[in-house]
General transcription factor 3C polypeptide 3-like isoform X7 (Ananas comosus), 823 residues
Amino acid sequence: MEIGEGGGSRHGEEERRGDEEEQEKENEEDVAVEEEEEEEEEGDDEEYAIEFDEETNPLDFIEEAADGVELYQQFERLEYEALAERKRKALQDRIDRGEPSKKPRRDEFLGATMEEINEMMNFGMRRRNRSRAPKKRGRKKGSRNKFTHEVSRKIGDATLHYASGDYEEAIPLLEEVVLLAPNLPDAYHLLGLIYEAMGDRMKAINFHILAAYLSPKDPSLWKKLVSWSIEQKNSGQLMYCLKKAITADPNDVGLKFDIALLQFEMGEYKKAAESYEQILEIYPANIEARKMASKMYRKCGLPDRAISLLEDHVNLPNSKVDLNVVDLLVSLYMDKNAHNEALRHIENARLALGFEKLPASLNTKAIICHAHLGEMEPAEVFFQDIQMENSPAKGDWILEVADSFASLGQYDYAVKLYSTLEEIVGDKNGKLYLKVAQCYISMKESGKAIPFFYKALSKMEDDIAIRLTLASVLVEEGKEDETIILLSPPKSSDIAQSKPWWLNGKIKLQLAKVYRDKGMLEAFADTIFPSLRETLIIESMNQKVRPAKKLPKTVLFERAKLLGEQQPQNIFHGFKPIGTTAELAKAARAKKLLQKKASLRAERKAAAIAAGLEWQSEDSEDETPRKEIQEPPLPGLLMNMEGHQLILDLCKALASLKRYREELEIINRTLKVANNALSEEKKEELRSLGAQIAYSTGDPKHGYNYVRHIVQQHPYSNAAWNCFYKVVSRVENRFSGKFLNRMKAAWRDCVPPIVISGHHFTAISQHQAATRDYLEAYKLQPDNPLINLCVGFRTSTSVSSKGLHFSTIIYASATTARKLCTM
């Protein structure tokens, strides 16, 4: 029994030791896998160094660069392929070991990480601590070409020739060195120096580039290329060289300032801010970098990050107050409407200065903050203190405070400050006068605003907005005659101007409204008719412009130009061009489309030649220019009710002036162009005006369609049919008979079209057909005197033809006429 228990105990211990050993092996394998993955990730970040094989002549790259071959793209492709091969090999190794393609570092399982789960599962078990040896990074030693005696001797001789100015002797020696040791950067560097001394800058740059590629960790070469890129104003090359130089020398603050400035000029404000923050990581006390980083974050819409950077500096214990930092911090808080926080920092700066006076810029911001908080008492003190200031920025401070008061509705204070500023610096461009006038308008004191509008207009005669605003104010004050003078062309018109203000459509529209309201119909029509007619013509043409389904080649070439603005003789061309992300994306799509078009054109040409046909090239130069949408003199007039009413008023004015042809043109064009925008009521009014033109003019054929439309809309209206009959009786329109037949068929109980049809047959001496229509009308309305008269006349005419006495016919007709008159 004891032996059995002892044996079971030993067996259990052996099992536990076996489990511990297996667990340790698994842990060791996990650590090994993690180390491999970390090495792979670190290896991905390493610089790829180009190495030439024995069959490659690097000097050919220089010659090909002169022919426009993009060598940088070849280098980039080699680097990409090398990194891809490295990843493929690592992936294959994991697959061979039977492991998943990618082991997750952090998996979510019930809110716990994988490491926490393993720790709970291994609780109580012994785990050895393993120290990881530092990983060796970089190229293995001895992999580059070593200096042989022959290479060293040739480089030494070439260096002596270079020092003595015998460049022609040095170049062949160095070219031999390149062939013997193609991966040795010294030969390329020396060749670059020689060509620089000879004045061949492009070859000098190309050899320096090769030297820099073969020694990417040498910052001096990249810095030299940076300076040359600045001289050439090649922003794409400059950005690439700056990144390489910073990688080679991460602690060079000057390079980081340069790349931040370049990113700012490119509009990449967030990247610029991050570059300035990298400077702060090296030198936290660099105030200029801190301010610039905050400004960049402010520009890219990250004010909280900008405030945090400045707060970190301001809140440092025993730090000297930098008023520029405080000023920027206060501005950031004001942008967020955190005026209490802004005042707190201003007061802290005041206390830190002690007996020194607070700068006027901060004092100005304090006044604005108090105004936002509804405290206007400090403004009175500001009025007194600002008079004592002699700073050149005095005017800017007054203007900033005045604009703030105006935006807050404190117009009295704003007018007072604007007037003070006008006394100090004057108003050369009229903007101060305009601000004062706008303040008076906001205070409902239009009378006081008028003189200031005139003063502003004297400085800015061609400003349409000011002239229109002043005209509206004058109309409100009942000064229509003064408004007409304001909007009318000057007596001494300057014809040399490209587009005088008095020819502007908005000016003419405002002047026409004044004429209309005063009842000056002829002046109203003469003013607005040309602009309205031109607007209708342009809008009609714009409706025919179809949206482009695809961009023309000219636009594609213009967009793709962004990718091609590089020097083909430079082996550094092929860098990512400078531009916003959207611009680069458009340029890439344009380039791809152009390449596709070129390949399709080549295929079509080959097919045409193979078929024995003549090839006709479709070059972009032969493209017909597309019609562009033009802006009319009165934009938006046809899309609002006020514009529709103006058109109706013009048509009525033209009718009163008996200018029917012009009226009819406006009606026709309006119904055609603005048919979808007009209400049914406005359409009917316009058609009624067209029908009146047909009724009133001696040549009514142009208004016949409007009359016909009227009777179609109102088939039982005697007035409409009377108008129609008057127009038809004066127009030899062969289609009127067909129209009457359609109306009789559609409205069988409608008498007027039947009677008019009878009149029509009577006029062409078709008496039987006329009698038939009159009798049909008589059946519908037997008591109608007019119908009785028509029936009696036709009957008497028929009887007369059979020999009855003429007096009987006259008697019957007179009797019918008397009945008609007594009704």
